[in-house]
Design brief:
Blueprint: H1 3-19, E1 40-42, E2 52-56, E3 61-66, E4 72-77, E5 83-87, E6 91-92, E7 99-100, E8 107-110, E9 116-120, E10 123-126, H2 131-136, E11 140-141, E12 147-160, E13 166-172, E14 182-187, E15 196-209, E16 216-230, H3 242-246, E17 260-263, E18 265-266, H4 309-360, H5 376-387, E19 394-397, E20 400-409, E21 415-421, E22 424-432, H6 436-448, E23 458-463, E24 467-473, E25 477-478, H7 479-491, H8 515-533, E26 536-537, E27 546-551, E28 554-559, E29 566-567, H9 590-593, H10 601-615, H11 628-633, H12 646-655, H13 666-670, H14 678-692, H15 702-708, H16 711-714, H17 725-731, H18 742-754, H19 761-767, H20 772-781, H21 785-797, H22 801-807
Parallel strand pairs: 1-17, 2-18
Antiparallel strand pairs: 2-3, 3-4, 5-16, 6-7, 8-9, 9-10, 11-12, 12-13, 12-15, 13-14, 15-16, 16-17, 19-20, 20-21, 21-22, 22-24, 23-24, 25-27, 26-29, 27-28
Length: 809
């Protein structure tokens, strides 16, 4: 199996963590009240006066037992084992020096606590989701053809609470969880006991297949069992049997009150563990069963009524013998495989060590094997030569070649190096292995946001004894470097001479951002929008963590470095008051500095600082580096440098609000007028004119009143005084205008746009082309018009269809 599939499978596991909402396991928390029903909880949490418990053993047997002794009162079989797992064995390719990693290098399994864990190359990591959530996003097909399938089936058992007699069985007719079709399996008895246990068993199956093959790489099966105690007769006040129900003469109490729900306690063993009373069972080594040929679902065979204790013991004895043989067999294979792998890897590493320097001196050539594929070990030399002619040192780690050329440095011993991963130039982020949790968190969130054009791509991970190596998309430079270099190159002609994006200009002569810069800034916002939609808070936005891709004289911004990013689970809106990780000095929101509650708003504050940095050639709204944190904490912000750009001043004032609840959402920022092109700006003014023309001038219209109240700011006096006489003469031929009216100026803009081709040539030359010329002509004379009109229309018309299209632009 190739490593691309492993990466794709692992990516699917972590992706599911972000796109699915986290549902708390019913085995750990009480279920919220539904229709005023009693809350469901674990059977072992009921008061001590109930001297019994319901326990499910690994083989699928449900038992009513005494808590103190563990002695079985009654039991019945609910179907196949409640848990099993399988991982494909390690294989070795004789034609390749590398060991082909097994499919279970990345696989999902269930531990003793019944939680899901991802077993990865950097260790075992808990997955913040249930099997139910995992099944919801199935099936999944990876880029290389690997397939993961999931199924779910529910079975209900109704039994006599005191005798354990099976009354009837129901099961779903389809593994489709959306199917509502229920089939009654069988009717065991006709009587209706006064107290009935209603068990619901839900079986889940996950199976991973190799690319373009039916070979199973791994699978895991798991069953949840819930129970409700139904006492229907108790609800009938005139029922003559009520008294007998209450006084039923049995030498044991039932483990739960009538009309309540709970989760059946599951054991990882085939036998009941003593001393269940009020405590967790003694910890046992779980017995892993090899997967059956059919999906793990309840059998169709009918369970015998009232099995004797001798029969139960006989079945359990035979099951334990079978499992013991299987465990011994698996252990022998596993130990042999480990010895074989250790010997093979030692041979390979010795061979690589002795020949590395010799190979480093060779020129790269294509070596193709009989299958037409480039030989992996030799292709590494080819890829190595693609790095740089000046760097001749490095080493191979799995699918990765890491050069010794350092690109950047981070905290806690992290550095970034040049490298090659599966023939692709990459940036290799090397982290100290002691910080593998940080590495895994970054991988987790990178994969969750993978494929988005404004998030740095993650290609794979390798590791050795000391480090974890993340292979990331190779970029040209950081936003910080780009702004500093371009500012010096464009405004200090005698300064640093660079060839980076020589034909791309970031600022116009009037200080406004160029289309290139606006596009780059919008890329950054788009990346934040994507993360927030996935419930991910970046928590460390700064120019250094925005990387730049150069494509055919254009630039693209991508968010990176999500080592301290966090995911909001379910309906969470904040990370709490004690969230770890503080971001970078000078770019943090005030609530980060003051240890307050962290929400998506911290990214919006940092975003405001980053966008200000872009528009002002590298300046900061809170001053120089050493004073920024103090100024942020005291809300001493200075937006003087963007006061001449009303759209920027408006947006930054909102983003840098000290109150996180008053900051706009990332999606609102994306559609802010600052990022509108000339065509959108002119279209908005035109449509606003059409909207206000619907208002009666003779009636006290709130929209007209609000619009005209902004006249002194939007117009800066009489608007005819800011236009050429020939233009004023031209518009006066068709109608009369009030030169102090915002409404009338909008009408002029609207009419000239609609009748541009009919205008005299000299007026067309005066206004310029549509839409850029129009935008420059009216924007230069009335720079605050757009934002003042926008704010009024947003207040009164944001829910109207004509306005909503500008919020989705």
């Amino acid at each position: 199996m190739n490593y691309t599939l492993l990466r794709s499978l692992f990516a699917n596991f972590l992706f599911s963590l972000l796109i699915c909402g986290s549902i708390v396991s019913v085995h750990n928390l009480e279920i919220s009240k539904v229709d005023h029903a009693p809350a469901k909880r674990s059977l072992l949490s009921f008061p001590d006066k109930h001297d019994t418990a319901l326990v499910a053993t690994l083989d699928g047997t449900i038992n009513l037992v005494y808590r103190d002794s563990g002695r079985v009162i009654w039991s019945f079989g609910s179907g196949s084992p409640i848990y099993s797992s399988y991982q494909a064995p390690i294989t070795h390719d004789d034609d390749d020096e590398n060991v082909t990693l097994p499919g279970n290098s990345y696989y999902v399994d269930c531990a003793d606590d019944w939680k899901l864990y991802a077993h990865t190359a950097i260790g075992k990591v808990s997955m913040d989701m249930t099997m139910e959530e995992f099944i919801r996003i199935m099936p999944h097909v990876s880029e290389d053809g690997g397939v993961i399938l999931g199924s779910k089936k529910t079975t209900a058992f109704v039994v006599d609470a005191h005798t354990g007699r099976l009354i009837r069985v129901h099961h779903t007719s389809s593994t489709n969880e959306h199917s509502n079709s229920i089939i009654q399996k069988s009717t065991m008895v006709n009587e209706k006991p006064d107290k009935q246990f209603s068990f619901t068993r839900t079986d889940y199956l996950l199976t991973s297949f190799a690319p373009n093959s039916n070979k199973v790489l791994w699978n895991v099966t798991l069953a949840d069992i819930d129970v409700a105690l139904l006492c229907p007769s108790l609800s009938l006040p005139n029922n003559p049997r009520s008294k007998s129900i209450v006084d039923f003469d049995f030498d044991f109490d039932l483990p739960m009150p009538c009309q309540s729900k709970a989760s059946v306690h599951r054991l990882h063993t085939h036998h009941i563990v003593n001393k269940i009373h009020g405590k967790q069972p003694e910890k046992k080594v779980p017995i892993l069963l090899l997967p059956p040929t059919q999906p793990i679902l309840p059998h169709d065979t009918q369970t015998p009524e009232n099995p004797s204790q001798q029969e139960v013991k006989k079945v359990n004895f035979l099951s334990e013998i079978r499992v013991a043989f299987l465990v011994i067999f698996v252990l022998i294979i596993a130990i042999g495989g480990l010895i074989y792998r250790h010997h093979t890897m030692s041979t390979i590493l010795n061979k690589k060590s002795s020949s590395r320097r010799k190979r480093n001196r060779k020129q790269g050539r294509n070596y193709v094997n009989e299958d037409g594929n480039i030989d992996n070990e030799r292709s590494l030399m080819l890829n190595y030569n693609q790095l740089t002619e000046y760097d001749t040192e490095g080493r191979s780690i799995g699918k990765l070649f890491v050069s010794n050329k350092e690109i950047a440095k981070g905290s806690n011993g992290t550095i970034v190096l040049e490298g090659i991963y599966e023939g692709r130039k990459v940036a290799v982020k090397r982290l100290v292995r002691a910080h593998h949790d940080v590495a895994f968190k970054e991988i987790q969130n990178l994969i969750a946001s993978d494929q988005h054009p404004n998030i740095v791509r993650w290609y794979g991970v390798e590791y050795d004894h000391d480090f974890v190596y993340l292979s990331l998309e190779r970029c040209a430079c950081s936003l910080y470097d780009l702004i500093q270099i371009k500012a010096m190159n464009e405004y200090n002609k005698g300064g640093l001479d660079v060839n980076l994006l020589h034909d791309v200009h970031l600022w116009r002569p009037n200080g406004y951002p160029s289309p290139h810069l606006l596009k780059l800034m919008r890329d950054i916002v788009s990346g934040v929008v994507h993360l927030h939609e996935l419930g991910i808070i970046h928590r460390d936005l700064k120019p250094h963590n925005v990387l730049i891709i150069v494509k055919e004289k254009s630039i693209c911004g991508k968010l990176s470095d999500m080592g301290i990013s966090r995911r909001l689970v379910g309906d969470m809106v904040s990370l709490g008051l004690h969230a770890t990780g503080s971001g970078s000095s000078g770019w943090q929101a005030p609530e980060q500095l003051l240890n307050g509650r962290q929400t998506r708003g911290i990214d919006l504050f940092s975003l405001g600082c980053v966008l200000f940095f872009c528009m002002t050639c590298g300046r900061h709204p809170f001053g120089e580096q050493l004073e920024r944190d103090v100024n942020v904490a005291n809300n001493r912000v200075n937006l003087f440098l963007v006061e001449n750009i009303p759209e920027a001043f408006d947006l930054f004032s909102r983003l840098l609000n000290p109150n996180p609840e008053l900051r706009p959402k990332a999606l609102d920022v994306l559609h802010h007028p600052l990022f509108w092109d000339s065509e959108t700006r002119m279209a908005f003014l035109r449509d606003s004119s059409d909207r206000v023309e619907l208002e009666d001038r003779e009636v006290d219209s709130v929209i007209l009143r609000g619009l005209e109240s902004k006249g002194h700011v939007a117009l800066g006096g009489r608007w005819d005084e800011k236009m050429e006489p020939e233009f004023i003469n031209n518009i006066g031929r068709y109608r009369r205008y009030k030169y102090n009216s915002v409404r009338d100026l909008l009408r002029v803009i609207r009419n000239k746009l609609s009748h541009y081709r009919e205008l005299p040539k000299e007026i067309q030359e005066l206004l310029g082309g549509v839409p850029e010329g129009f935008n420059d002509y009216f924007g230069s004379r009335f720079p605050k018009l757009l934002m003042e009109v926008y704010n009024v229309m947003y207040h009164y018309c944001k829910d109207e269809e004509w306005f909503r299209k500008f919020l989705e632009h």
